[in-house]
Structures are given as structure tokens and as C-alpha cells.
Amino acid sequence: MAKCDICQKGIHFGIQVSHSHRRSNKQWKPNIKRVKAVVNGANKTLNVCTRCLRSNAVVRAN
């Protein structure tokens, strides 16, 4: 699974506990998109989470 190239957000692991307290392993995955962005004046393809896209941390290429 890819990480966000801007904020380094990746998979988080933990234990999901049901109402009856049965426990199972769980992964929480970020919403990562491949985006063409402007980096130092050149277009480059980056893996970016939607939080960084929404907060305008990335300038998208046309």
C-alpha cells in the first residue's frame, strides 16, 4: 500500500473489538490517489491522500 508523498500517511493497525468483545486484527487504510502535480515547475505523478488534496497542499497540473 502506498503512502502519501506529502504527509506520509499510511496504514494503521489495531484490534477491532465487537460488542461481544471478540477481537480481530484490523487495518485502516488512507484514501490515496495518484495525481499529476506541479513540483518545482515540472509535472510529476504523486501519491496523495485526499486530505492533502482538499487542504490545497498540492498544486494539480493541468
What would you note in describing this structure?
The chain has 62 residues and is mainly beta. It has one domain (1-62): Ribosomal Protein L24e, Chain: T (Roll). It is 8% helix and 45% strand. The protein is built from 1 helix and 4 strands, in the order E-E-E-E-H. It has one helix spanning 50-54; strands at 12-17, 23-28, 32-39, 42-49. Strands 1-2 form a two-stranded antiparallel sheet. Strands 3-4 form a two-stranded antiparallel sheet. A hairpin with a 5-residue loop joins strand 1 (12-17) and strand 2 (23-28). The mean pLDDT is 95. InterPro entries: Bacterial_rp_bL28, Ribosomal_bL28, Ribosomal_bL28/bL31-like_sf, Ribosomal_bL28_bact-type, Ribosomal_bL28_sf. One of its GO terms (cellular component) is ribosome. Belongs to the bacterial ribosomal protein bL28 family. One of its GO terms (molecular function) is structural constituent of ribosome.
